[in-house]
């Protein structure tokens, strides 16, 4: 993702690429999708050992950034996951860790277990009939979650439904963003807790699965609360920015692979005695797509760098990146499908895997329309 990498970052990047080449071939991705498994837990532990979950975690808990640029480094991995359409709870796990980074010390064991890949923690933010309301969590009068945390002796009682919970059917822990008498609240809820019902949901992506999670009188103690009030709003901001950056970076990787395959196809495929790549109209289309890819790469890279350097001012840049990449990615990959002709729409060809990935990436963690509205809200707030 970033052209100017340190030696350690280049090693981190190349190690991830080699690991994916060995363990997550396209055939393996298809097999996981057909099995309904989503991802293999042992594979995820091996990925965690490579540092995929460590960048946002404090060093005393076993984490730490390579060069002080955690989001830039995570974006390198996200792009590789997009390039290979690999599965795994990479985005949502790091979003959870971004929030837990400012949680009380008692969550250290949970953080360490999640970092090691032994625990799969996912963020439960979406609700049926609602968009990505987390974008306005720091805005006065913003929509309040319908999942309610009612105060009871020694803790809270949760009721309500979350949907589009990424990796929800394989998660051990849910970081639930809810409403409470004390304002916005975030609570860690174990998946096996009485009253928690998990229902797998169909998604367009073969391996990036989601679930609906229902909470019926789920009682948790005060120790399960990670943030409340203003602290919860700040944590949610870190979480959505992390998720949006990594999803955008993943889409950039998917676009790059789709374009590379299309470039090879146009060079190899002949018609009327000439390679398709020699036709001016097709050259222009590929040139446009390549230009848009580089623009997507630049905006995603800038968002990660801004979040690393100036997190307090990153919201606008992150929304610019997510809105732009999410709008362009499906259009570019769809054009790659069209440039392949009839073979591009067959199940046997790999292009649909990339198209599925970027279309789902468009919808998760804020659509282009939602992020553009968020940019407008930020500009109006700054102008006031």
Question: Would you give an account of this structure?
Answer:
50% of the residues lie in helices and 16% in strands. The chain is α+β, with helices and mostly antiparallel strands. The strands form three sheets. Strands 1-4-5-8 form a four-stranded mixed sheet. It has a four-stranded antiparallel sheet with strand order 2-3-7-6, with no helix packed on it. The protein has a two-stranded antiparallel ribbon with strand order 9-10. Strand 6 (196-201) and strand 7 (210-221) form a beta hairpin. Helix 4 (70-84) crosses helix 7 and helix 9 (315-339) runs antiparallel to helix 10. It is globular, with a radius of gyration of 21 Å. The mean pLDDT is 94.
Can you summarize this structure?
This protein has 384 residues and is α+β, with helices and mostly antiparallel strands. The chain contains eleven helices and ten strands.
Provide keyphrases for this structure:
384 residues, alpha+beta, four-stranded mixed β-sheet, 16% strand, globular
Q: Total helix count?
A: 11
Count of β-strands: 10
Summarize the main sheet: 4 strands, mixed
Give the helices and strands as they follow along the chain: HHHHHHEEEEEEEEHEEHHHH
Distance between the termini: 36 Å
Fraction in beta strands: 15-25%
Shape: globular
Roughly how many Å is the radius of gyration?
21 Å
Strand order of the largest sheet: 1-4-5-8
Low-confidence stretches: none
Structural class: alpha+beta
Helix content: 40-55%
């Amino acid at each position: 993702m970033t052209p100017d990498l340190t030696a350690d970052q280049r090693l981190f990047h190349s190690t991830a690429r080699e690991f994916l080449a060995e363990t997550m071939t396209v055939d393996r991705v298809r097999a996981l999708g057909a099995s309904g498994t989503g991802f293999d837990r042992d594979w995820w532990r091996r990925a965690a050992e490579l540092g995929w979950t460590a960048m946002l975690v404090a060093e005393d808990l076993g984490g730490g950034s390579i060069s002080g640029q955690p989001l830039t480094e995570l974006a390198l991995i996200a792009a590789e996951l997009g390039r290979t359409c690999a599965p795994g709870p990479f985005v949502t796990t790091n979003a959870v860790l971004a929030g837990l980074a400012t949680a009380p010390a008692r969550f250290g064991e949970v953080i360490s277990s999640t970092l090691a890949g032994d625990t799969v923690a996912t963020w439960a933010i979406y609700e049926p009939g609602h968009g990505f309301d987390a974008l306005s969590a720091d805005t006065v009068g913003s929509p309040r979650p319908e999942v309610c945390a009612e105060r009871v002796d020694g803790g809270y009682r949760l009721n309500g439904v979350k949907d589009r919970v990424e990796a929800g059917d394989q998660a051990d822990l849910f970081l639930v963003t809810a409403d409470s008498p004390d304002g916005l609240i975030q609570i860690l809820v174990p998946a096996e807790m009485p009253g928690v019902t998990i229902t797998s949901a169909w998604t367009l992506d073969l391996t990036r699965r989601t679930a609906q999670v229902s909470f019926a009188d789920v009682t948790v103690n005060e120790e399960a609360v990670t943030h409340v009030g203003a602290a919860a709003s700040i944590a949610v901001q870190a979480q959505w920015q992390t998720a949006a950056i990594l999803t955008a970076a993943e889409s950039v990787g998917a676009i790059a692979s789709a374009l590379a395959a299309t470039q090879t196809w146009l060079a190899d495929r002949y018609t009327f005695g000439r390679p398709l790549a020699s036709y001016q109209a097709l050259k222009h289309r590929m040139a446009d797509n390549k230009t848009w890819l580089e623009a997507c790469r630049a905006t995603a890279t800038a968002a990660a760098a801004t979040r690393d350097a100036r997190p307090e001012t990153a919201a606008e840049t992150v929304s610019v990146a997510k809105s732009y990449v999410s709008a362009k990615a499906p259009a570019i990959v769809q054009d790659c499908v069209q440039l392949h002709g009839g073979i591009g729409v067959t199940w046997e060809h790999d292009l649909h895997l990339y198209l599925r990935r970027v279309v789902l990436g468009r919808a998760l963690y804020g659509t282009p329309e939602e992020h553009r509205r968020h940019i407008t809200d930020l500009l109006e707030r700054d102008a006031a």
